[in-house]
Design brief:
By secondary structure, the chain is of the alpha+beta class. It folds into two domains: 43 residues; 110 residues, Rieske [2Fe-2S] iron-sulphur domain (Rieske Iron-sulfur Protein), CATH 2.102.10. Helices cover 24% and strands 30% of the residues. The chain has three helices and ten strands. The strands form two sheets. A six-stranded antiparallel β-sheet has the order 1-10-9-4-3-2. Strands 5-6-7-8 form a four-stranded antiparallel β-sheet, with no helix packed on it. Bound molecules: FE2/S2 (inorganic) cluster. The site of FE2/S2 (inorganic) cluster has 12 residues, from loops.
Length: 191
């Protein structure tokens, strides 16, 4: 017999008006939608940093060239004339890591400070090389000539050899390799 019951399962207590309200289909679907919206919002917020991390290399196509080690300051400072050094620089292009070797010259100025010169001729980009017999840098392409300090001595280059930014860390000279615009009288960074 279902006597004394509101029509629910046999033996269960009769449902109150509050129970009926909470378990109504409309109420349940509203709470479900609210929960889904809240979950989606939190997930979207949490995913922003992740997407930025993942897309960063694609959004920033090419990174600046890295700092590169040139050598021991003590050893470089002991040299009497410009020393050629091959440095290894890294750059990121999207997801690709580009590693390349660049030739630079380390010179010692009159005050003993070390300076690093790019070997790329500012005329049309050939490689200038130190010639100890002439005590100057010569560019083989069009006869550009530079002094031991990199200053222009003659030929078609519009300026002297380009100096690169340097720093010393733990006794090691480091250089920030960059490319400069050619055929202009003033040094201008292009990459
Ligand atoms: S590229 Fe060096 S002088 Fe022309």
């Amino acid at each position: 017999m279902l006597e004394g019951n509101d029509g629910n399962s046999p033996g269960a207590p009769p449902a109150t008006s509050r129970d009926v309200s909470l378990s109504s289909p409309d109420r349940r679907s509203f709470l479900g939608v609210l929960l889904a919206v809240g979950t989606a919002s939190v997930a979207a917020l949490l995913s922003v940093p992740l997407f930025r991390f993942v897309l960063h290399p694609l959004l920033r196509s090419t990174t600046p060239l890295s700092w590169a080690e040139v050598g021991s300051v003590d050893e470089l400072a002991a040299a009497a004339s410009p020393i050629k050094k091959l440095i290894t620089v890294e750059q990121r292009d999207g997801w690709r890591k580009i590693v390349s070797e660049k030739a630079v010259y380390v010179i010692k100025q009159a005050n003993g400070q070390l300076t690093v010169l790019s070997s790329i001729c500012p005329h049309l980009g050939c490689s200038a090389a130190w010639h100890s017999e002439n005590n100057e840098f010569l560019c083989p392409c069009h006869g550009g000539r530079f002094g031991a300090d990199g200053k222009l001595l003659g030929g078609p280059p519009p300026r002297g050899m380009d100096r690169l930014e340097t720093k010393v860390e733990d006794g090691t000279l480091k250089v920030h390799y960059q490319y400069f615009r050619q055929l202009v009288p003033d040094k201008e960074v292009i990459a």
